[in-house]
Amino acid sequence: MAMTISDRAARARAAVDVVTAFFAQIQAAAGDPDALDFTFGNPHELALPGLTSAMQAQIEPRSVEWYAYKTSERLAQETVAVGLRTDLGLDFEPEDIAMTQGAFGALSLAFALLADAGDEVVIPVPGWFCYEPMLYAADLVPMRAALDPETFDLDLDAIENAITPRTRIVVVNSPANPTGRVYSEATWRSLADLLESASRRYGRRIWLVSDEPYRRIRFDGIDFVSPAAVYPWTVIDYSYGKVLLAPGQRLGYLALSPLIPNAERDELREALFPIGLAIGWGFPDAVMQYSVPALESVSLDLDELARKRDRLFGALDAAGVRLTRPEGTFYLWGEAPGGDAAAFCAALAERGVHVMPGTLFAQPHHFRMSLTATMDMIDRALPHLTDVAASLGATAR
Q1: FRET partner for 156 with CA separation of 20 to 30 A, picked from 72, 77, 105, 206?
Q2: Residue pair 355/348 in contact by the 8 Å Cβ criterion
């Protein structure tokens, strides 16, 4: 007898089973007041004052339509366009912006806007663990392209090998989750050449979706260049939940590169509202949209985040754990001592320290830690981290 759920739902569920199982495990440990949770990028302190004050200022209605259905509010679009011009040096216009329910909503909009059922979408590995289930749920086909195993740079050969006549989209992520890498303009130019050549070869435009929710979270003054400045056929998704450290307040956008040729850009602009409606009224709530002008300048403390990075990285590196020094995001990515991420994470969990195994990223030999933990949590966890690393074979430097 056939399954009750659809085939695409079954594929999506299977693709995300390892994540949902891990989430359930972490939820079970949430009642332990002594647990040290370095898994998901959740806050461990009260919300940023700038976030709460921005929302509080918009709660009281100013008109009878204050809480009516919202699409993309014009003031929010204008604010985002100005911010993008400042961040990326490109001439974005308000009409290029669709406000969404976080980056999740922006990605869903991009996939619905650009791809047809059965189209293939190239995704990075290791990469965000929700790309695959989202694509399956949209009746699209994920195609993995491994990053360079040593540097976690984009591997252009791997991307080219993943492209077929059915490829419609390539997804890139910089600063990258989970590795923290920030890719250079030279990398984007090489990728643009590759995608232009492949598009001509197959007679079908390949789009680039630039996943940029961590764009404003970078360390050491490192520059950021978006591929939207290099490859015209690019759309950008963004989430405010990262820089505000408030993933439960869903606010983001999809932005069309201003370099998209005018005819195609106009067609996409006209489709943003009807497709946003069609995928389930994917626009942010009223208060969040009204808050955008105030929220553009609100950010978690990047200097404190850098201190947390340096504290964890320095101690674990000295203990012999091989790590990738993050250039952005709020994650630390490393090789599991002993080579078995599940064993490393299980041994830590027995001591009340919870880190994310690389199995969630199709990398069974690695682990990820969230830097959104407090410094006190880091100091309490480090003896356990170094002890377990030593017991599994790490050698102090």
Answers
A1: 105
A2: yes
